[in-house]
Specification:
The complex is a heterotetramer. Chain A is built from 19 helices and two strands. Chain A is an all-alpha fold. Chain A has a domain at 275-350 and 375-428 and 454-484. A two-stranded antiparallel ribbon of chain A has the order 1-2. The radius of gyration of chain A is 21 Å and the shape is globular. Chain A starts with a helix and ends with a helix. By secondary structure, chain B is an all-alpha fold. Chain B has one domain. Helices cover 79% and strands 0% of the residues of chain B. By secondary structure, chain C is mostly helical. Chain C has one domain. Chain C has helices at residues 2-28, 38-48, 59-78, 94-114, 118-149, 154-163, 170-186, 205-209, 214-239, 252-279, 288-308; one strand at residues 51-54. In chain D, strands 1-2 form a two-stranded antiparallel sheet. In chain D, strands 4-5 form a two-stranded antiparallel sheet. In chain D, α5 runs parallel beside α11, α10 packs across α13 (316-343) and α14 (347-382) runs antiparallel to α17. Chain D is globular. The chains are: A mainly alpha, B mainly alpha, C mainly alpha, D mainly alpha. Chains A and B meet through α5, α6, α8 and α9 of A and α4, α5, α6 and α7 of B.
Chain lengths: 484, 221, 315, 681
């Protein structure tokens, strides 16, 4: 059945690429596996759309409208990233920054990472969720340190320790959750940690325990979401890892972590009955948005710049989830989608841009439109999209979020206004000279893969102007599920 | 009845020892000692798990006890020991915050943790209810230790101690998590430590030291 | 019938008025005065001369005198100097009249800049400066009138006045003083400008005419005398509209009365102007703003006085 | 004009075709045109000689449709497109207000597109096809902004407008100043857009209904209504260039290619005016006289500010940009006045002021685009933008000079051209301010009229400087000797706009009627009474005031003609050409002419308080003396730089958070944990 395929294929790919990852066709193989996963996931999605939510294997696995679209997103971006990473890694090899052994590590870890994320998304068991998150961390740690440079090692180390500690706290939260659960659900079988069961009885869970548990889970998974002030690993990891990894990190991993947080929030809110968890999310969200924006203002490294932009956007999404309610949740889910599409495409272009200029320092990247129009305009359009200019989809969600905030919590809108304004100035003042102006850099050895970039941007553009009813219905269902 | 009383008493005793050991870790400077203390912690964990398993008569707890013994009492300390030998990182230099203050902070944390856990542990149906506070205290203490130390190795030991605390919480407060999860956790732990091992070597060959103040290049300047 | 008579009269006696002023000035400064017809002679002479035009003067330069003359004649046709039922007056109220004068000013300045000589441009600059300072003051004066009589078209003003025989409203005094100051400024008289001098650095109006000669010069001179005449008539219409043949008045008697009244007013006004000019000294060019600001202030004061004394606003 | 042709027939037989559909077809047509250019990306011929004229035809048809709509004073049409958000498809609506601004867009756009067809040369900056695309997307988005009937579509079109114009501004992106200007422009536009968005957020009033209909229905407390109004004022003011949100305008307009500057200044700024009107008169149902007073004050201040700064500029496009600020100020003054009257229940006077504002928007879009395009021709002919290097072009390029003269006289507010009409109407409406029931207002506001008079006269000064320095006098550079006149397409475009200026000047009844249709709809029936024949316009009552551009024109022409003939008859003097006399000063060089700085000197002297001046005077003993002056906007240092510095400081503070030490990071997590635990404790 599809679920098995979706989970199994990446694992198989991991082993396969662990053996063959060093061959010259590894890139294609990687693409192949990702594509197979994509196909399987499509089947799964179709099935879920047809027959509604899906609970299998003693309810251990859950596919409902909330996570299925994240699954679709994950496999899709995973696929496009695989397409992108083939020429990118070729060029890296050509520049002598990587050797076949590293490539093997890269390819197999890439697949493992995908597998871990899919597991985290699909499992119905909070414990397994935790395990999957930990696995994702471990695999990406190896990916971040792929270049073995001082910087990349340091980044990986910080990433490992911070996220390790975070994840440990999350585990304690899970334990507390279990502790609360077994009061009501008892410990027969392994039902006490199944999200669906918890969701069913969340009103009867002991609120005080759930409060504690939520705090630990929030701090734990929030570290991986990159909420200020737990974000410190994020820019380093994004800047020092290989670009495809940065793309999947900010495009997918953050989403998955946020997904975990939201699942916990649903339970906590149901049990506590007050809006406290929502308020916490709003606080974190605003803080991340504002501080992320101010960080943007002072960046010198292109990938670091967009890493911070991810923090800012995660802040906005978290804020929206904190607001709760059908529209805000809808907007948050939409923003998740468009952000991961846009941000990954930006990282694709940024990666090629830094390859073309031979550096990641913004001041040394000039006149991209001159070197290669596709890269230049890709970066320009991507930045404009991520800055929330219509007709791109990011604007749609920001429109909904801002208006909702204006309606429910007017006090927060000035903060958001500042955040958006500063972020705009921060990013655009740096992107514009990179794209425009003169340059005398040589062309790239291998032709860059710009198809994914423009594919993503086209999708984001479409979402900005027209949303297929099926998708909208899907979001609505998910929003209803999250409630709040 | 009396038996369970006895078990409860002894569990409390073990919990106290656990707390004591964490304090000791907080105060130690030599990494070797820390490893040994860590092993002791594992041992106590093993004992407590056995007791709980015996009391509750749950087979899967026996498994996890065995797992603890293998992993936390033998494997990890041994690996760490070898690592330290190979890397020659016996001495941790002066911690960032000096010991007495750390101890005071630790004391405050313990009080905080108890205060936090007090109302909750009342709910526990198990005989080992109020050990939850101690578990929390252990976690926070090892967190504190991670913050105050300079060497990579000591940070890792702190990290592992934290895991112990979690494990203790899991077993004592809730008679252990479902088996799958236990296994998953253990696996992750193992992999993590291996990765750490790889890291140590890479870090050392890059920076020819495990001192963390080399790892402060990436920053906002 | 009134209409064309009035225009003809204006064109005819405007130079005479100019001459009369200079004669009075000469007397007051006990110089021997030129004859009253002096300005007519000058015009004739100029019209018969050969015109000398700068090599690269554009059409704008040569066309401007005609435009000036045209606008001034049109203004004369709008201002009720003799009678109030003027079909032309429908075309422009007092504000449009100001616009008309502004048009003339702009054309003259552009023409002065056309040759590109230093003095021409300097004159143009100063002229425009005076202009944009004078206009607000003038507008405030009109505001006063509007508040009094509820109209900005001059004939209706006069009719209103004739209709109700009110005593003079206190605000009118302020307005009148302001108006006289503006009149002096706008018509290049002392204390802003000196029509007599050709001392380069002080002149404004003359500086713009430097390049004109013969018939062009004649037209410009005629136009400027018409301008002075028009301003005087505006003043009469606003502040002492006695004797102007109001609505329905027809036939010879009112006509004669109106002409007589006009001549009398002009005589007095000319003498008064000459007196002011001889008594006051020319200001430095950058004192002009203060002078006009004063005028503006007076007009505003008049306005406030009117509003405070609470005369009936909407007549 | 187009309206004029139709007024006669159409009013009786209102045709059945829905105007809205026609307009949408044109919009789609524009986008197709834009994309069509991409087929042959670098062929200038296709783009210039096929696409742009077609675009002009589109503009013309928009003008026709809107004109017919206004003339027939049709009921408003609505339409819903199945796009946009799931719960919020695109709503479109054509009513008289939007029709008026579409008329404006159409008339000005026709001229600009025609000119652009002849203007764009190959080789420099962005590829012609891309320019064509951006240009037509810009047009289309402006049309959609005016047609939008829900907040989402409005915002999308609004930002698309900003974006496409940004790309047009930076088409010469090799030059750093232009990039800087573009950045500043887009930043301000975006901030403004967020303000507008928040304004809509306020007005949605409870229900998540973003259609304008729902907003009309929403009931707001005075506080929130005022909040919405202020947000709108900031947002649209930033787009319109209202002081102090004007900083981008004098940067972006000179940077852009001339047709684009014309488009931005002529049409885009008006979309901001449209938005302001739409929100304050249509969507918000409660209004307060304080709003009007605020708007009036801001408008007058902007106008004065713009006029004063325009007077001291030495770059011709910059000068025009500041003059745009001035005119926008005048328009907002009119709107503010209308608000005042309307809130004091004097609908007739409100209608008068509003008509003045509307007509002035139309006039400004005509003469300002005309002048910007003229500067474009001058730029092409001479490659000079600085006034200090131009002069005497009336002999080299008579066509441009003549047509520009019309624009100059019109913008200087001189009868019988169109600029005077609107200003006259505005002054007329000022005359009634003493009837305001508020003690202070009715004394203070009349001073506004005086300020307005000062501003208009100042703008006359500015325009004399503009025209005189560029077209009159001697060429200040030898290179101007071989300047060539504009080509026929450019002349056609300029001619169209000039014709518009004259036509509205002598037949203001048409636009007055159009404005009446708007005010009638907006102010509930109140419209300027048209008790006036084809000869004169009578705003309130014939006793009070009347004006006729036609008669004035005929009068002047007649008198001039007669005089000319008579002079020819009587004065039998020949005319001979000589050197200029100039007080007998023989050694004339072009450098001795008065410069642009010189013409600005009285203003600098009088309004010194407004400027930051750096002057460098030559010493008397200097062999080749050089005089340099640099004028700077005080607000730039007073407002914008501090803001930037503040952000920088905050960013540095934020930077301290990330000190690179792992222990500290762990400490953050630790403290966060503790704090949250205390929270739930």
């Amino acid at each position: 059945m599809e679920l098995l395929l979706v989970l199994g294929l990446p694992l198989a790919g991991t082993l396969l690429l662990a053996l063959l990852g060093a061959r010259h066709f590894a890139g294609e193989l990687n693409i192949g596996v990702s594509f197979a996963t994509l196909a399987a996931a499509t089947l799964l999605v179709v099935r879920v759309i047809r027959h509604g939510p899906l609970l299998v294997w003693h309810d251990q696995f859950l596919v409902d409208s909330f996570n299925v679209f994240l699954v679709a997103l994950t496999v899709f971006v995973g696929f496009t990233t695989a397409i992108f990473s083939r020429p990118y890694m070729r060029i890296e090899e050509h520049h002598g920054r990587l050797n076949p052994r590293r490539l093997r590590l890269y390819h197999s870890m890439y697949q493992l990472f995908m597998a871990a994320m899919l597991l985290a998304l699909l499992t119905n068991n909070m414990g397994l969720l935790w395990v999957a998150m930990e696995a994702a961390t471990l695999s990406t740690v190896l990916l971040v340190s792929l270049y073995r440079t001082k910087a990349s090692l340091e980044a990986a180390w910080k990433y490992f320790i911070l996220c390790g500690v975070g994840i440990a706290l999350a585990l304690f939260g899970t334990i507390l959750l279990y502790f609360a659960a077994e009061q009501t659900l008892g410990r027969e079988g392994m039902t006490a940690l199944l999200w669906t069961h918890l969701d069913a009885v969340k009103e009867h869970l002991e609120p005080r325990v759930l409060g504690l548990a939520f705090v630990f889970l929030l701090v734990g998974y929030g570290t991986k979401v990159g909420l200020v002030p737990l974000h410190n690993w994020l820019p380093d990891a994004h800047a020092e890892g290989p670009t495809p990894v940065s793309a999947v990190l900010s495009g997918l991993l953050l989403n998955v972590a946020l997904y975990a947080v939201v699942r916990c929030k649903i339970l906590a809110e149901g049990s506590i009955g007050s809006a406290l968890p929502g308020r916490m999310l709003m606080g974190f969200g605003l803080l991340s948005a504002v501080l992320g924006a101010f960080f943007l203002w002072r960046q010198r490294d292109i990938k670091r710049l967009f890493g911070y932009s991810s923090i800012e956007h995660m802040g906005i999404i978290t804020f929206a989830f904190g607001l709760g309610g059908p529209v805000a949740n809808f907007a948050a889910l939409l923003h998740m989608t468009v952000h991961s599409l846009t941000k990954s495409s930006i990282f694709f272009t940024a990666g090629h841009a830094s390859q073309a200029a031979g550096t990641q320092r913004i001041d040394d990247i000039r006149g991209l439109a001159g070197i290669s129009p596709t890269i230049g305009w890709g970066l320009m359009l991507g930045s404009i999209a991520i800055l929330g200019m219509p007709p791109f989809g990011v604007f749609t969600s920001e429109f909904l979020i801002l208006t909702t905030a204006m309606r429910d919590h007017p006090w927060s809108t000035p903060i958001l206004l500042i955040a958006l304004g500063v972020a705009f100035a921060g990013i655009f003042s740096k992107v514009q000279p990179m794209v425009f102006g003169e340059s005398d850099a040589p062309p790239l050895p291998h032709s860059p893969a710009m198809v994914p970039v423009f594919l993503h941007l086209a999708m984001v553009l479409t979402l900005g102007l027209y949303m297929p009813p099926a998708l909208a219905e899907w979001y609505r269902a998910a929003a209803r599920l999250i409630g709040g | 009845m009396l038996k369970s009383q006895l078990i409860a008493q002894s569990l409390k005793l073990l919990a106290a020892c656990l707390l004591l050991i964490s304090f000791a870790m907080l105060s130690r400077r030599r990494t070797q000692r820390l490893v040994i203390l860590f092993a002791w912690q594992g041992a106590i964990l093993f004992l407590s798990t056995c007791l709980v398993a015996y009391d509750a008569g749950l087979t899967e707890l026996w498994y996890s006890a065995a797992l603890t013994l293998v992993l936390k009492v033998i494997a990890l300390p041994w690996i760490l020991h070898r690592l330290i030998q190979r890397l020659g990182a016996q001495w941790d230099t002066e911690p960032i915050v000096n010991i007495p203050i750390t101890m005071l902070a630790g004391l405050a944390l313990v009080i905080f943790a108890f205060g936090l856990a007090q109302p909750i542990s009342m709910l526990a149906t198990t005989i080992t209810r109020n050990t939850l506070g101690i578990a929390l205290a252990v976690i926070l203490l090892s967190f504190l230790m991670m913050i105050t130390r300079r060497k990579a190795v000591t940070q890792v030991i702190g990290f592992l101690a934290m895991e112990n605390g979690l494990f203790f919480a899991a077993t004592s407060a809730t008679y252990g998590m479902p088996m799958v999860i236990e296994l998953g956790i253990a696996l992750d732990l193992l992999v993590g430590v291996f990765i750490l091992g790889i890291f140590f070597f890479q870090i050392r060959e890059q920076f020819d030291s495990l001192d963390l103040h080399h790892l402060e290049a990436l920053r906002e300047d | 019938m009134w209409q064309f008579g009035e225009v003809a009269l204006a064109i005819a006696i405007a130079p005479l008025f100019m001459g009369w002023i200079s004669q009075c000035r000469a007397w007051m400064q006990n110089r021997s005065a030129p004859p009253l017809t002096q300005s007519y002679r000058m015009l004739r002479k100029l019209f018969h001369k050969d015109a000398a035009v700068a090599t690269d003067a554009s059409l704008l330069f040569r066309g401007t005198p005609y435009v000036l003359f045209g606008t001034m004649v049109l203004a004369a046709a709008i201002i009720p100097s003799l009678a109030t039922d003027l079909p032309f007056a429908r075309a422009a109220d007092a504000i449009a009249l100001i616009g008309l004068f502004a048009t003339a000013r702009v054309f003259l300045s552009l023409a002065a800049m056309d040759i590109g000589t230093a003095f021409g441009t300097m004159g143009a600059r100063r002229e425009m400066m005076i202009g944009f300072l004078a206009e607000p003051a003038l507008l405030m004066v009109l505001f006063n009138a509007f508040l009094l009589y509820g109209s900005t078209s001059l004939p209706n003003l006069v009719n209103e006045y004739a209709a109700r025989h009110t005593v003079i409203d206190p605000s009118v005094i302020f307005a009148a003083v302001a108006f006289v100051m503006v009149l002096l400024a706008e018509n290049a008289r002392i204390p802003i400008d000196n029509p007599g001098t050709h001392l380069e650095l002080t002149m404004i109006h003359e500086a713009m005419l430097l390049e004109y000669s013969a018939r062009h010069l004649a037209l410009v001179e005629w136009a400027s005398s018409l301008k002075l005449f028009n301003y005087a008539c505006i003043g009469f219409a606003l502040f002492l509209p006695w004797g102007i043949a109001t609505h329905g008045a027809d036939g010879g008697v009112p006509l004669l009365a109106a002409v007589a009244a006009l001549v009398a007013k002009l005589t007095v006004a000319g003498a008064a102007l000459a007196l002011i000019e001889s008594l006051s000294a020319k200001l430095r060019i950058f004192r002009a703003p203060e002078y006009l600001a004063m005028a503006f202030l007076l007009a505003v004061l008049g306005l406030l006085v009117h509003l405070l004394l609470g005369a009936n606003i909407n007549a | 004009m187009n309206a004029h042709l139709y007024i006669s027939g159409i009013t009786s037989s209102a045709i059945a075709v829905p105007a809205l559909r026609l307009l949408l077809i044109v919009v789609a047509f524009w986008i197709v045109l834009g994309l069509a250019g991409l087929v042959r990306p670098c062929s200038l011929r296709v783009v210039a000689h096929l696409l742009f004229p077609l675009g002009a035809a589109g503009c013309l048809s928009v003008a026709l449709v809107a004109g017919v709509f206004l003339a027939a004073n049709r009921m408003s049409e609505v339409m819903i497109l199945p796009l946009g958000l799931p719960s919020l498809p695109f709503h479109l609506r054509l009513d008289t207000l939007s029709a008026f601004f579409l008329l404006l867009l159409g008339i000005a756009g026709t001229g600009i597109s025609t000119f652009a067809a002849g203007y764009f040369r190959s080789g420099v900056g962005t590829a012609p096809a891309l320019l064509c695309l951006q240009y037509h997307v810009f047009l289309a988005s402006m049309a959609i902004v005016i047609l939008a009937d829900d907040a989402y579509l409005f915002m999308v079109a609004w930002e698309t407008m900003a974006l496409s114009s940004y790309f047009l501004v930076t088409s010469q992106h090799r030059i750093p100043e232009i990039r800087r200007a573009g950045f500043l422009y887009l930043l301000m536009a975006h901030l403004g857009a967020i303000c507008i968005l928040l304004c809509f957020g306020v007005m949605q009033g409870g229900s998540w209904q973003f259609t304008f209909d729902a907003m009309r229905g929403a009931s707001l407390t005075p506080f929130w209504a005022s909040a919405a109004f202020l947000l709108a004022l900031v947002g649209f003011g930033a787009k319109a260039g209202l002081v102090p949100m004007h900083a981008w305008l004098p940067e972006a307009h000179p940077a852009a290619p001339s047709p684009v500057s014309a488009m931005m200044s002529g049409i885009m700024l008006k979309t901001a005016v449209y938005g302001m009107l739409r929100i304050s008169f249509d969507l918000l149902h409660v209004r307060f006289w304080q709003w009007g007073a605020l708007m009036l004050a801001m408008g007058l201040f902007s106008a004065l500010y713009g006029a004063i700064f325009a007077a001291v500029q030495t770059d011709m496009k910059r000068l025009l940009a500041y003059s745009s600020i001035e005119n926008i100020g005048i328009i907002f003054t009119g709107i503010g006045l209308a608000l005042l009257f309307e809130t004091c229940h004097l609908p007739l006077f409100a209608a008068l002021a509003l008509s003045a504002a509307l007509i002035h928007s139309l006039n400004h879009s005509l003469f300002k685009s005309l002048l910007f395009l003229a500067t474009g021709s001058v730029l092409h002919a001479t490659n000079q933008r600085s006034l200090g290097k131009l002069g005497g072009l009336i002999r080299r390029m008579p066509w441009v000079a003549t047509l520009a003269l019309v624009g100059t006289l019109a913008i200087a507010g001189l009868p019988p051209l169109n600029g005077f009409v609107s200003e006259w109407l505005l002054l007329q409406s000022f005359l009634f301010t003493p009837q305001l029931p508020h003690a202070f207002l009715n004394m203070l506001v009349p001073l506004g009229a005086a300020a307005l008079a000062l501003i208009v006269a100042l703008s006359a000064y500015v325009m004399v400087k503009f025209y005189g320095v560029i077209f009159l006098g001697q060429p200040r550079e030898a290179s101007l000797g071989h300047a060539h006149d504009a080509n026929w397409l450019e002349r056609l475009g300029l001619g169209w706009l000039a014709f518009g200026c004259i036509a509205i000047g002598i037949q203001p009844q048409i636009v007055l009627r159009a404005a009446g249709a708007v005010t009638g709809r907006v102010l509930g029936g109140a419209a300027v009474s048209l008790r006036s024949s084809i000869w004169t316009i009578v705003p309130i009552a014939p006793g009070q005031a009347s004006y006729s551009g036609l008669i004035l024109l005929l009068g002047i022409v007649g008198v001039v003609g007669i005089t000319f003939v008579l002079v020819r008859f009587l004065a039998h003097g020949r005319m001979r050409r000589t050197d200029p006399w100039d007080c007998g000063y023989p050694w004339q060089t072009p450098r001795m002419q008065d410069t642009a700085e010189g013409l600005g000197q009285p203003i600098r002297h009088m309004f010194g308080a407004f400027f930051r001046m750096e002057r460098e005077l030559p010493s008397p003993s200097d062999v080749n003396p050089r005089y340099r002056i640099h004028i700077e906007d005080r607000l730039w240092r007073a407002l914008y730089l501090p803001m930037a510095r503040g952000v920088q400081r905050l960013a540095d503070m934020a930077g301290l958070l990330q000190g690179g030490r792992l222990a500290i990071y762990l400490l953050y997590s630790f403290l966060t944990l503790i704090v949250l635990l205390v929270f739930v404790l």
